[in-house]
Amino acid sequence: MSEQSPHSLIHARGLVKRFGDFTAVDGIDLDVAPGEAFGFLGPNGAGKSSTMRMIGCVSMPTAGELRILGMDPVRDGSRIRARLGVCPQLDNLDPDLNVRENLTTYARYFGLSKAEARRRAEELLDFAQLRDRATSKVEPLSGGMKRRLTIARALVNEPDLVLLDEPTTGLDPQARHLLWERLFRLKQRGTTLVLTTHYMDEAEQLCDRLVVMDGGRIVAEGSPRSLIETYSTAEVVELRFPDEVDYTGKLEGIGRVDPLPDRILLYADDGDAAVAEVHRRGLTPSSVLVRRSSLEDVFLHLTGRTLVD
Questions:
Q1: pLDDT profile of the chain (309 residues), mean per 10
Q2: Which domains does the chain have, with CATH numbers?
Q3: Contact 10, 194 (CB under 8 A)
Q4: Separation of CA 41 from chain center
Q5: Sheet holding 264-268, edge to edge
Q6: Quick one: angle between helices 173-188 and 143-154, nearest 10?
Q7: 89, 96 contact by CB (below 8 A)
Q8: Which of 41, 55, 89, 136 could form a disulfide with 165 if both were Cys (CB 3.0 to 4.6 A apart)?
Q9: How far apart are CA 149 and CA 175, in angstroms?
């Protein structure tokens, strides 16, 4: 058995999850420290949610070692769950209760007194910016409000560890940014966050450290910035050519080239210099965009496809 760091809230070695003949998680190792915002980045089907379900003690590992809060999920599942906050991928709020009641009723499941449940609910209504909707039923709420309520509910037991599975999927940009601001406040308080996402900007905004998953395996690990520095270049040039233009071979030596269905990505440390070289070689793109590298470029390099495939 491997040695666990005394500071790890999550410790996994050789963690495997199979469903029949299908291996969803294929022998991953990871450690998450207190106060860390840790992310699982990858496309649908990469194994992120299966890993989160094992960490949340609702799905038992097929093989490998897993310790959550220093305990064994197989033997101590109920004790671990009592100290977790979970925001599932799909909202499962009670439509028959109003916003405040969704919080107070859930708090009672953790053995909180009625007075303590009310106190926590009032604090969380302010945190989630839902004070003016406290007596509203769930159904009329916007998608962003429902997600904020679901996250507030996950905090009602003052958990040691908060699990967020695709927290902003389906939200419009404004709602996503408001949710990011709420999660950043949690991070500032020292709350340990573990989230899955396939949005590279979300991972860059929220995560101190993350793993990139593909096919049930971890293919890279590090901070967002270190991953970009390791697997990409400072800048990326996006080129589009008219259908009749043959650019084959004419971009060699300028930088790494990744052809996508709708554009060509040219990786270079100096994007403007790369564009000048493209023109010098007699190529005239119909459009040119020079931008900084992102985690999506990292994922494309590691797996050969974009995050949203």
A1: 65 97 96 96 87 95 97 95 92 94 95 95 94 96 93 94 90 88 89 89 91 93 94 95 85 89 92 96 94 89 66
A2: 10-222 (3.40.50.300), 233-292 (3.30.70)
A3: yes
A4: 5
A5: 256-259, 264-268, 235-240, 287-292
A6: 20
A7: no
A8: 89
A9: 13
